Amino acid sequence: MFGLQKKDTTLLLVVAALALFAPFLLNPFPEGSAMAQFNAGYPDLMQRFVIFGIFAVGFNILFGLTGYLSFGHAAFLGVGSYSAVWMFKLLGYNVIPGIILSVIVAGLFSVVIGYVSLRRSGIYFSILTLAFAQMSYNMAYSVLGNPTSNFNLTNGETGLQVYTSDPQILASAGAPDLPHLFGLTMRSSYQLELGSWLFTFNAGYYLCAVLLLVSFYVAIRIFRSPFGLMLRAVKSNQQRMNYTGLNTRPYTLAAFVISGMYAGLAGGLLSTMDPLAGAERMQWTASGEVVLMTILGGAGTLIGPVLGAGFIKYFENIFSKINEGVLHAWFGFLPDGLENGVIWVVEHFVGPGWHLTLGLLFMLVVTFLPGGLVEGGQKIAALLSRRKSKDTDNRATQSTPAE
Amino acid sequence: MGILEVKNVNKRFGGLQALGDVNLSVAENTVHAIIGPNGAGKSTLLNCLVGKLIPDTGSVMFDGQSVLGRSPYEINQMGISRVFQTPEIFGDLTVMENMMIPCFAKRDGAFELNALNSVGNQKDIIERAEHMLEDMNMADKRHMHAASMSRGDKRRLEIGMCLSQEPRLLLLDEPTAGMARADTNNTIDLLKQIKQERDITIAIIEHDMHVVFSLAERITVLAQGTPLVEDTPDKIKGHPKVREAYLGESA
């Protein structure tokens, strides 16, 4: 189906089902119960899951296939965000031009950065991309964002946003004053109450989810194409490639630009969900985050980056919400002295300390599952099938890593 | 006029004259060996032929065109394939994928953004790669991870990858270095077979005299960056200058 092999079609359908039913799947606990804070099925977070999923899927085309580790992909995310807000300012709140422009501008931007950075490989490439991203960040933060100058591209630390004085030349009289798709605002939601469960279906989320599926589909096609094979060859042995009559430069540049465009799309969608673009989106921590997502999920696999993005965003939003009050409610059954002791330990790992938990998890995954969560899943699957029948034992352990 | 003409090539690394006035002519459809003791400049010469190094002076012509200043991939597209001392293959990929890559390079050139077609639909490439694997007696290994093969098989695969491009000149850099005797003999047989079946010129750099004398039709002896003699194997065997270069004057 769709020109894919059976295995890939299944994978695409699984991702489609997950994306479609996410409002149910992420809200397993009833409202008001003690576990409700682990629900992730609210629009804001679900949007982040899929947007960063797109970002990581694109990043994986560069890092997973060619092995070139870019530490500057947040620059393209930021550029995409600014482009989309500019379209809102100039043309109006319809999201289509904003999304298209964010992809184009990020693509052009990545041609320039990629052309220079790809002259080096390995750690020097990483450092070059990091330097470019930090330059972009600082430019956006100060040089190009001085509100008093005539050339105020980014509006500095306030962040770029839409003002009533903006032209919005394509905006029709009755159009909503928010990002919308032909009148359907991104914030509009439909809430479904089933018993004590509350499920929210948000227009913005479903727009992002559709684009994630398109992005994922394109990524599968790239992975299975001769171009994808060449990218894996770049990772494996550039020397042999050069002596086989293949010019590695345009291959790596194309991969870089494609992944930059994915990042631009993700950035554009961030602005579409909330039309305010700030320079902090370009900071190196944001670049590092997508590296973590890809490695945590499984670099070079198809589904890995999506899992990694979901995993990290879940932790960021759920663990960071757990505060002392919540902990007291959890550990209230313990004797007082012990309760305070336990809380003192645990609170370092939650709330603002969620990075510590993430860091530990990351170390565990990298140490024991170098293939990321995908490898973990495969190991579990292998273990289960071994239990089922001992005679298929060999096949399960020898199976090649599937995506 | 040979297919490969090297004229007055000089290459200096700092104070070391690696190549001094090297002249070499490789005739079409022959096996030409370049031998010489360690440090004779054999590898430097080879690197000048494939675009890795640029000579300080002199010219290198392949089939009437200069190769100087061209990148390795451009020189390969002109029709020169190179086999490395340690087999250079795509270790992370399967044997079949290894074989398909040069087929793509032959069909599509140095770069082709073929990003939405499935590899599985490239019937001509698959057919060609499978045919080549059969020629190399490796069809049963097609799904194997290339890195997990023995050194002899890696060498065989590398030679097969080069041949699948139908090069006019095949350069071999010590193809049997570090191989067991059996693997060495297999490689010699493979190269003999290749020579018999195809119109191909082979230039081989080798240490192992057994390999050289079983294969070569012409031999150039290089010593201290300069060609000493060029002749047929029989003449080279008893040549006093060659003995001197290899064994020192007293011998």
From TrEMBL, chain A:
Primary localisation category: membrane
Tell me how this protein sits in the membrane.
Multi-pass membrane protein
Q: Which Pfam families match?
A: BPD_transp_2
State the superkingdom: Bacteria
**Could you confirm whether the keyword Transmembrane appears in this record?**
yes
* Listed name of the protein: Branched-chain amino acid ABC transporter permease
The subcellular location is: Cell membrane
Q: What does the UniProt keyword field contain?
A: Cell membrane, Membrane, Transmembrane, Transmembrane helix
- Membrane-spanning intervals of the chain: 46-63, 94-116, 123-144, 203-223, 250-270, 290-315, 327-346, 352-374
Q: Which PANTHER family match?
A: ABC TRANSPORTER ATP-BINDING PROTEIN, HIGH-AFFINITY BRANCHED-CHAIN AMINO ACID TRANSPORT SYSTEM PERMEASE
Report the InterPro entries cross-referenced here: ABC_transp_permease, LivM-like
UniProtKB/TrEMBL annotation, chain B:
Record's keyword annotation contains ATP-binding = yes
Q: Where is the ABC transporter domain?
A: 4-249
Task: Tell me which CDD domains the record gives.
Answer: ABC_Mj1267_LivG_branched
Task: Tell me which Gene3D superfamilies the record gives.
Answer: P-loop containing nucleotide triphosphate hydrolases (3.40.50.300)
What keywords appear on the UniProt entry?
Answer: ATP-binding, Nucleotide-binding, Transport
Gene Ontology MF terms in the entry: ATP binding
Pfam families this protein is in? ABC_tran, BCA_ABC_TP_C
InterPro entries xref list: AAA+_ATPase (IPR003593), ABC_AA/LPS_Transport (IPR051120), ABC_transporter-like_ATP-bd (IPR003439), BCA_ABC_TP_C (IPR032823), P-loop_NTPase (IPR027417)
Q: Does the keyword Metal-binding apply?
A: no
Name assigned to this protein? ABC transporter ATP-binding protein
